[in-house]
Amino acid sequence: MTTKVVRRSPIAQRCISLAEVYNLRDIGGYPARDGRSVRWGQVFRADGLQRASEADRACIRALGIRTVIDLRSWDEVAAGHVSVVAIGAERFHHLPVLHSLDATLGPAAVTDSEQTLAETYRKMLEEGSLALALALRVMADPSSHPVVFHCAAGKDRTGVLAAVLLSILGVDDATVVEDYALSAPAVERMVRRLIAGAGNGAEVPVIPEWLLSAPAGAMRRTLEGLRHRHGSVEGYCLDSGVTAETLDTLRRLLLQS
What we know:
Helix content is 47%, strand content 10%. The protein is an alpha/beta fold.
């Protein structure tokens, strides 16, 4: 009798399908320029974990996550945040990238969504530089792992931190952009659920259509702008107060041969 080996695709390994959390995925497996790759099962990115159903929480507990980093604003966290006990974690860090979402939501319609998103991400990188630096320091602590960081949709604030982290690990821009664009189908699913909820009388937040997209060019422009202003992504981290030792520790912890 011949046993057939079924190989899972990288996307299947990466994206974790849950009922009420739409954008949870592992950032492991990406190749770095030095020939190593990002470790699987150590860092996860997600959307609003506070929405997790009991079944979702059981799946998250199975990941063994020890630390939660919440990048949302104070008002968002006050309205609801995940219980670390409920998902089997031990530590919760609230590191708001933005003080308020009001300015970020911006105009209802724009002519160039890529440029508008890139400008939004520039503001996040500037206003949230301390929070992003602290998040990197948390992830440089071996006792923090595995870690999950999240915002509301898991695309923008989470996407900016993921892009910075993957870049300093040596992942090339094309792959970083690809990782960012993986949020698109998750956001579409989230929107469908919001619309369905509206039919049941639930309040639906007013979100500009351009903010719901994840065009590859937006993250490409963001990385280009970051290098223009700081020389490199590592330069941005150093300018934000992250030490070279912390960056080296992240590479040692999160890269494997």
